[in-house]
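Q: What changes when zinc ion is included in the input?
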Amino acid sequence: MDKKDEKIIAKILSGHDAECMYDTRKETPGTCPICNNRLEDVINMSYKIRKKRWDMYDTYDCFCIVTEKFKRFCEENNYPDLTFIQITASPGYYYFTAEGVFKMDDERCKVKFMNKRECCGSYDEIICSGSFYKSPDFILQTDDFILRSNHIFGSFERKDPFIIVGLKTMRKMQDYGIKGIYFHNVYE
Ligand SMILES: [Zn+2]
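A: The predicted holo structure follows.
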């Protein structure tokens, strides 16, 4: 589908790839003991970040890591409800997530929920197979924000939400000199 007529209203952030925080599924804490799906993020404090060039990394097992500079940018701009947890073995690097929710349009995003589990109510996989659209009943008050998607995406223990920022936020990040973030379109 040609998207040039659709209005871009926000951006999804992604960072550069980084090594896994946990080597195997069994080692990943915060997961359901029966189905192994992730229920919460538990940070490996002995994780050592190897690459140190960019301001945002996504580990292969779906943890978002940012730099001191990224954190300072967020603090100076007073974005609410963000979580930064410093990783002990990687001084200056923080596990990062946002708590405020950006509601997506499941139908137009073609979100697929695979195999709901009775043990904990989680899904083995949640996949967004379309482009990203905002839910029509979710009203944005500003174009300067940092939020997360209302679902966590991925498979089993490897799941995380999308981090979504306003268009103004993107420009401010670029002006601030934050490096190594990819911005993906979110449509009206
Ligand atoms: Zn379970």
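Observations recorded in class: The chain has a mean pLDDT of 95.
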